[in-house]
Design brief:
This protein is mainly beta. The chain contains two helices and 13 strands. Strand 7 and strand 8 form a beta hairpin.
Length: about 220
C-alpha cells in the first residue's frame, strides 16, 4: 500500500511571460502557489519564514526560495563539498519512487554553489555524479533581511532520470540554517516541508518526500 504524500501544485507558465531575455525573470512569480508550511520537528526554536514557489513549462521546472533571514553563515574557504555542507543552504531532492534507489540531491547555498549528488538508501552518496550543467541553472542574491535562491531544471533531464510520472515529481524541500553558539561553533537547524517523523534529523528517508503535481 503506497503512502499518501503531501502535495504542492506547480502551475504552468506561458513561455511568452518571460521578460528581459532571462529564464528566471518572471512577471508571473506572483501566480505561483506559495509554499510556507515548513517545520523543524527536532528543534523547538523559531526559524525564519521560508517561501517556496515553483512553475513549469514544457522546457523547464522553475523554482524560487525566498528566506527571510539576514544573518547568513557561509563557509567560503573554497568551493568544496565540505564548505557548502557547512553553509546555510536550501535543498531539493528528487526520487523515482519510494524505494529511493537512486534519488538525486541538489543542495544550494547563498553564493549559488551547488552540491549535487546521486544517492541510495542508508546515506550512500555518489559525489562524483553531477546534474548536467547544461540542464541546471542557478542564481542567488542577498538583500536586507532576506535571501533568494532560484533556478531552473530542464524537463528533459528530469525525464531522462525517470523522475516524472503522471505529471508528478516526488520531491523533498529542505533548508539548513547554521547558527553560532556560545562556544563559537556553528550548529545546524534542519527544516523540512514534510515532517519525516524521525527522532533525529534525517532528510535522506522516504518519509521526508512529498509530491509536486504539474498542473496546467
Amino acid at each position: 500500500m503506497s503512502t499518501i504524500l503531501k502535495e504542492y501544485q506547480v502551475k504552468f507558465t506561458d513561455q511568452n511571460a518571460k521578460i528581459n531575455a532571462s529564464d528566471l525573470d518572471f512577471q508571473c512569480w506572483e501566480k505561483a502557489n506559495c509554499l510556507t508550511d515548513f517545520c523543524s520537528p527536532w528543534n523547538t526554536d523559531p526559524f525564519s519564514k521560508i517561501e517556496f514557489r515553483a512553475l513549469w513549462d514544457f522546457d523547464n521546472l522553475y523554482f524560487n526560495f525566498k528566506v527571510f533571514d539576514g544573518d547568513i553563515h557561509i563557509d567560503q574557504k573554497d568551493d568544496s563539498i565540505d564548505c557548502i555542507g557547512n553553509s546555510d543552504r536550501v535543498e531539493l531532492f528528487f526520487r523515482k519512487n519510494e524505494a529511493m534507489s537512486p534519488y538525486y540531491c541538489l543542495e544550494m547555498d547563498t553564493a549559488a554553489r551547488i552540491m549535487d549528488f546521486e544517492a541510495f538508501p542508508n546515506h550512500n552518496f555518489d559525489f562524483k555524479w553531477n546534474w548536467p550543467r547544461i540542464d541546471l541553472k542557478l542564481e542567488a542574491s542577498k538583500e536586507n533581511g532576506f535571501f533568494t535562491v532560484q533556478g531552473k531544471i530542464s524537463m528533459a533531464s528530469l525525464k531522462a532520470l525517470d523522475l516524472i510520472h503522471n505529471n508528478t515529481i516526488e520531491t523533498g524541500v529542505f533548508r539548513a540554517k547554521f547558527s553560532k553558539k556560545a562556544d563559537s561553533q556553528y550548529e545546524a537547524t534542519w527544516i523540512s516541508w514534510v515532517d519525516p517523523k524521525t527522532e533525529t534529523p534525517n532528510f535522506h528517508i522516504a518519509s521526508s518526500f512529498g509530491r509536486f503535481v504539474l498542473v496546467e
